[in-house]
Amino acid sequence: MFRWAIIFAVVALIAALLGFGGVAGLSASFAKVFLLVAVVILVLGFFFGRGKRIP
Questions:
Q1: 30 pLDDT exceeds 90?
Q2: Which pTM value belongs to this model?
Q3: Full DSSP string of 20-34
């Protein structure tokens, strides 16, 4: 998920530099959504983990 967020952020940056405002805004929105989902999954994984490990 972090990879997709970075990809969309780079696409948004390049599109903004080239003057494609609509594409830049849409890509930035997708980057924000992917980043939010990735952080939520990371936090849930941290708190709930895999459970008790038996050696």
A1: yes
A2: 0.78
A3: -HHHHHHHHHHHHHH
